[in-house]
Amino acid sequence: MNLMVIGGGGREHAIIKKLRENPAVETVYALPGNGGIAADATCVDIGAKDIPAIVDFAVSHSVDFAVVAPDDPLVLGAVDALTAAGVPCFGPDRRAAVIEGSKAFSKDLMRRYGIPTARYETFTDMDAALRYLETARLPIVIKADGLALGKGVMIARDLPEARRAVRAMMAERIFGESGACVVIEEFLTGPEVSVLAFTDGNTLVPMVSSMDHKRARDGDEGPNTGGMGTIAPNPYYTEELARRCMEEIFLPTMRAMNSENRTFRGCLYFGLMLTPDGPKVIEYNCRFGDPETQVVLPLLETDLLTILQAVANGTLADVDVRFRGGAACCVVVASEGYPGRYETGYPITLPETDADTALDIAGARLEDGALVTSGGRVLGAVARAETLPAAVERAYALAAQVRFENAYYRRDIGRRALEVE
Ligand code: AMP
Ligand code: GLY
User: Fold this and answer.
1) What is the mean pLDDT of residues 288-311?
2) Which domains does the chain have, with CATH numbers?
3) Is the pLDDT of residue 176 over 90?
4) Which residues line ligand 2 (CB under 6 A)?
5) In the chain, N or C terminus with fewer CB closer than 10 Å?
């Protein structure tokens, strides 16, 4: 079989390696992939948003199955275009991907179907938004409606800060057109949990839970990033909570999308906050999380390709999706300065890995056959073990052996989880 994976980050590297475990897989094309992915797939220099080129490539290279991993191509309709060209693929179509593509849509969906989330108002008029702030409770959360690389969320502690955030998004358009519409919502507190779920619109199977570490610095300080590390499972997420989320959030969301004639087939990501009033949805993503995928897939026992094909075919109910016990940890090794300015082009030396460890490369390219840094998040050092403390220790031992100039990683990935355990 020839597979094609759209995307080029650590998440895609983890997906590709997992897909390769199926002996029927011959060739895996990564569009565009990256210098590290090149060790496990044939990288093709086609951008993840270049949908016509993606479709042409799939057709001309007899791709049997495609996986669209990032948000942009999903929201732009990559799955619709591939399907129209007769290429079977995994991922929601454009109508369903709007659950991530528009926060105004997803908030409205939750309100109409009674799915627990933060109270909110939506604004397309800046003056109305500024007036609303006068009476709102602080702190308050201001979100750009559309995709903003996971950075379109600002938490304001006081009124001047809130006003600045609204103006920055709506007038200065710091997140581009995403700021034409903003959602202003209640500030919630509690531990965060990420739950990815496979769904074909009839069946929904949650994967093992995880915990992201979004801030750049230790102790959850510093700016928000795309994610500096993850652990799975998330110890805050008890079996009781899992049952409750299934009934109050996951299945109602799947059914709501069906009722809206936007059946979601793919990986639905629930970003949850466990508030004193119960679990609430912070955000939906229409795809695998990054770097959640890097800790969830190592714990998946069932063949990934079988699951993804069943989701695409609407036969997920026939697959026994199983996870092994134990835990996993991913420590993201970044370029010092990320998510702000950073330098690239430094040679990378990688340690050996074994059956329980992995290096998922995100921001690296090949230069004369040697791997050099090319991005903010350079790679994830991943380890799986019987217990969370052992997984954390092994992931850190691996991260410590990764060498490149200006390498930076948080020292406390998993610390809070270990305290709960
Ligand atoms: P998002 O891009 O929606 O995942 O938001 C990024 C981060 O902002 C989340 O992971 C939370 O830590 C925080 N956040 C978002 N919405 C809220 C909220 N309503 N209350 C408190 N924190 C929030
Ligand atoms: N780790 C958060 C995300 O993938 O959006």
Assistant:
1) 98
2) 2-91 (3.40.50.20), 119-186 (3.30.1490.20), 192-318 (3.30.470.20), 327-420 (3.90.600.10)
3) no
4) 150, 212, 227, 285, 289-290, 292
5) C
